[in-house]
Design goal:
The protein is of the alpha+beta class. The chain is 30% helix and 24% strand. α1 runs antiparallel to α2 and α3 runs antiparallel to α4.
């Protein structure tokens, strides 16, 4: 199997799209507080993405009705923003921003705590971040997709949490979703080989309880089958000889405030 590999000019465009997505995520993240709705997040994402010269990739994607996925508490992913979903102190919410800029996509998400959350929730959020980073840490030219899943699964197991299967990371470039599928569980040394110049995402969904999930009747929202909390973090990266270049590295907060509107 061979996957698309990007040259220097394309990589620069991947970085620009990734930077825009990361900046939008940071800007929105800085405004989250009790009392806002997930529809407010959608509006902020539309405004900020446009201000950076991009288009929200998710809007209309296979009919997805919003610019951003907002996944609260037991929602694993693909939560649809709503004017009636008010965020309360103690919630955790994943905001997943994907920007199309100059022909390339950047895809990144983070789970934010609304006010003070339970130690249980705070711990899950930190484990989810560490799982993503453990997956990223094994990526380099010559590694296998299975190495990523193995690293994530091992850490999750050690922490007593579970990893969602079948919904995963993906190749990315001129399309938001392309080959390969990046499963977040796996076997070391198994699966397709990663090569320099490929672009992909790693975005494990980590459940406090079991790994099973259910899709709601809206055809999008994925929730944990047992109602337990779920958290997720996502980066887009380019594979290099030594490791990765992350395209969606968050900007420093001062920068976010400088470019944001009053
Ligand atoms: N950004 C999501 C991902 O990480 C894509 C969700 S597809 C949507 O792959 F249609 F639900 F937006
Ligand atoms: Co993604
Ligand atoms: Co995403």
């Amino acid at each position: 199997m061979s996957f698309e590999r990007f040259g220097p000019a394309e990589r620069e465009r991947l970085h620009r799209a990734g930077r825009a997505a990361a900046a939008t995520l940071a800007w929105v993240g800085a405004q989250l507080r009790p009392g806002i709705t997930t529809a407010d997040i959608d509006r902020w994402v539309r405004e900020d993405t446009q201000r950076r010269g991009g288009v929200p990739s998710q809007l209309g994607y296979h009919g997805f009705p919003a610019a951003v996925c907002t996944s609260v508490d037991e929602v694993v992913c693909h939560g649809i923003p709503s004017r009636t979903r008010v965020l309360r102190e103690g919630n955790i919410v994943n905001v997943d921003c994907t920007t199309l800029l100059d022909g390339f996509h950047g895809d990144t998400s983070a789970t934010f705590c609304i006010g003070v959350v339970s130690p249980h929730a705070a711990r899950l959020v930190e484990i989810a971040r560490r799982c993503r980073d453990a997956g990223i840490a094994v990526v380099r030219h010559g590694a296998r997709v299975g190495d990523i899943g193995a690293a994530i699964e091992e850490l999750a197991k050690a922490e007593g949490v579970s990893v969602v299967r079948n919904i995963g990371g993906h190749g990315i470039g001129r399309l938001m979703h392309t080959a390969p599928h990046v499963e977040h569980v796996g076997k070391r040394g198994a699966g397709p080989r990663l090569v320099e110049g490929m672009a992909l995402t790693i975005e494990p969904m980590i459940n406090a309880g079991g790994a099973d999930y259910v899709e709601l009747d809206d055809g999008w929202t994925i929730v944990t089958a047992d109602g337990s909390l779920s958290a997720q973090f996502e980066h887009t990266m380019i594979v290099t000889r030594e490791g990765v270049e992350i395209t969606t590295q968050p900007p420093d907060t001062e920068h976010v405030r400088m470019v944001a509107p009053p």
